[in-house]
From TrEMBL, chain A:
InterPro entries: GerAC_N (IPR057336), Spore_GerAC-like (IPR008844), Spore_GerAC-like_C (IPR046953), Spore_GerAC_C_sf (IPR038501). Residues 25-194 form the Spore germination protein N-terminal domain. PANTHER family: SPORE GERMINATION PROTEIN B3 (PTHR35789:SF1). The chain crosses the membrane at residues 6-26. It comes from Defluviitalea saccharophila. Belongs to the GerABKC lipoprotein family. It comes from the Bacteria. The keyword Electron transport does not apply. Signal peptide: none annotated. This is Ger(X)C family spore germination protein. Keywords: Germination, Lipoprotein, Membrane, Palmitate, Signal, Transmembrane, Transmembrane helix. Residues 208-373 form the Spore germination GerAC-like C-terminal domain. It holds the Pfam family Spore_GerAC_N. The lineage of its organism: Bacteria, Bacillati, Bacillota, Clostridia, Lachnospirales.
Automatic annotation (TrEMBL), chain B:
Belongs to the GerABKA family. It comes from the Bacteria. Pfam families: GerA (PF03323). This is Spore germination protein. It comes from Defluviitalea saccharophila. The keyword Repeat does not apply. Keywords: Membrane, Transmembrane, Transmembrane helix. The chain crosses the membrane at residues 296-318, 338-356, 377-399, 411-440.
Amino acid sequence: MKLIKIFFLTCILLPFSFILVGCWNYRELEDMNIVVGAAIDKGIYKEYMITLEILEPSIGEETPTTSRLISSEGDSIFDAVRNAISISGQKLYWSHNKVLILSKEIAQKGVIGILDWFHRDAETRSDVYILISKENSAKEILEKKEKEDQVTSFNLLDILVNQKNLAKAPDVQIWKLTDDIINDGIMAIAPTIELTISDDNLCPKVAGTAIFKNDKLVGFLDENETHYLLFLRDKIKGGILDLNPEGKNEPPTITLEIFDSKTKIQPVTKGNEIEMNVNINTIVSIAAIKSTKNFVTNEEVIKLEKDVSNLIKANCKKLIEKMQSEYGADIFGFGAATHRREPALWKKIGENWENVFENLKVHITVKVKIKNSAMTAKPIEVGD
Amino acid sequence: MNTNLLSNISLTTSLEDNITTFKQIFSDDFTFIAREFQNKYLPSVKCCIFYFKGLVDTEVLNEHVIEPILSENLMEDISLLNLVDELQYKVIMSSDITSSNDFQTILDSMIYGDTILLVDGYDNALIINSKSWPSRTIDEPESAQVVRGPREGFVESILTNISLVRRRIKSPNLKLRCKEIGVQTHTKICIAYIEGIADENILNELERRLDEIEIDGILDSGYIQELIKDAPYSPFETVGSSERPDIIAAKLLEGRIAVFVDGSPFVLTVPYIMIEYFQANEDYYNNYIFASFNRIIRAASGLLSISIPGVYLAISTYHQEMLPTSLLISISASRRNVPFPTVVSIFVMLTIFDIVREAGTRIPTPIGQAINIVGALVLGQAAADANLVSAPVIIITAFTGMTKLLNPNLLGAIIILRTLLLFSSAILGIYGFILGYLAIVLHQMSLRSFGVPYMLNTTRIKDQDGKDAWIRAPWWMMSLRPKLIGKKNLLRQPSKKAKRK
């Protein structure tokens, strides 16, 4: 009797264990085309053209791993992805996708449809780095390699991951872009990519920012502006600051390395009026001095600190004013800060935030601390 | 020789008749000797000794039994009241001599190597201890060699084995209960325990199980081990075995009960729990930090060796997103030209490893070299170069093979469980692996060894019981014996406990 019970229980439970779990899909690694990068352009015949970088793994030290590109078109992203099978021959495997490059055209028309597929599909991940191509198409970025047998997407990934030492482009993953698009009070940004000449070769270069309004691309910021955008977004983890404390129109003589920077955005309410207090706390060190003047004295350091904070303050102010007047896009998250700290006020002004932002008064206070002067205190004396 | 027939036979007062009876019983046995002789001075004293050639020490017989009876002047002091008693007390020089008239006892002792002396006119026999048989020297057992520790190992003689343990535990509390099992082999079994430490319930249960055994013969303690096991269908052993006297002594001191089996150098211990697989005698002789490290390594490799093939298979065929991209590339590249699915190649390679291992233990040493070379070739570069298997699979096989050798006692269980987990992973990926693993843990948790939970102490880390589980705590901290096993007398270091209170 007991055996019969166990038998029937097994008969019922066993199929469930097959049906109700997510793991039914046995597939061997070599049967898959591993997608490591994707570029999306406007199609010639259909709505989208997707270009995929697919790995061509090879054994041995002499033959490095290379990649190949395939392109396919479709009326939707998924359609284009599926159509790619008829070219690649094998099913595409998306879990190791590293970068997604969007062309200007596509980004201007709105990216939410593309992001949606990346979030919805079971195989794709939302930690894919996103890039906006400043060139005519996104495809040509993938085509250009720095070295012959290199995987472009891995190269781009390295660039993005190491951006924090340079702080001239934000690193944005799909989830972050989507987050910024859906959330009130903040506009999305993404790094831009363009081709540049390096040693007679055209190769990709990541620098600058693309500004989104809702889910549509509206404009670009250059490298310098991006640097201060990152200050305001509290995303600075490194990078350098150049300045010339002696004369205004001279080339910079002092280079400072940023160690750490903290930015706090504090909304201040005055009745129904709102103003922003931005506090930037930066710790830097002197990295290089191209002058014979000794800056490492107490007065000089205090003066230098003041100069640097003025520099940051001025540039941030300029950037905010540019955003207010040209785009009306609050990419700094002032609205989000208000939403967080003054929810009652946000209810009143939130819907009209764009107008509020355009006339928003922003007070910036910058505190710079020079921590040390690296290995040598005195400037290097040039002998006779 | 039918036992039922023998029960009807008894000794008579006529020596002639008795000799005939013996000769009939051992009619086709040329090792059976019946030697008749008389006393020089008193020819009416007719005697006959019965023994088996090869089992007895003939020197003892000649010098201490035959010679005194032959040449002693029995007439002088003989009272002639009872010649047999007279011989036993005054003539024969032997340290162990008894008299009996039970035919079955006489036969049993004779088969065991004793000599029987019959005297004409008396129906009781003298059983003279003259056992002597070829014996191996006591050397280090090959199954468990140590760097630090005694190099003695048990041999095939039960008496030698008991003496080896007795020499370590010089206490009158060490008790030995003997019995014979095996309808044909009459194998001597000895239950050893320390009175006052060992749990009587376990002892009674062990005796009950041993009494229930009804088998033709016991040739090794493995028979007993299987016959008294708690969960007969489980790959896990619930009866331990060891070839080393120091291990057996230590287990006796912990309150366990040992079973010596004549003819087997492996002595059994009960109860046996999971954690004992990972305990080695060297742990207790080395520095405790080093010992704990070794024990953790052993436990970890036991775990790794059952799970590596399954986990690799599950991740590389179901959950590729879990692999780092660079690893994904290299695995994908190495699998490019391999014709078989991963599950097949892993299974085949593991089986080949086990074939090589089995061949290595079974074949004579001179051919062993060949096996090593072939094994190395098959499992080595050649298989990968020929694209029969991918390089990661070879690494998996080698690692699994290496790790499972750390726990030789666990070998049988590892091979079964590893295969189980491999196939459950092949069907359901990491989910299947977890299900399989759960099944194993549940099974282990449900096991009992002589009433003691099999997974005893494996969940403990801090308290007294945990001090000798995954780690080996220093001796001065282990003041208690394992609970539930040595529960009758828990204090191992009584003064330590008193001081703490």
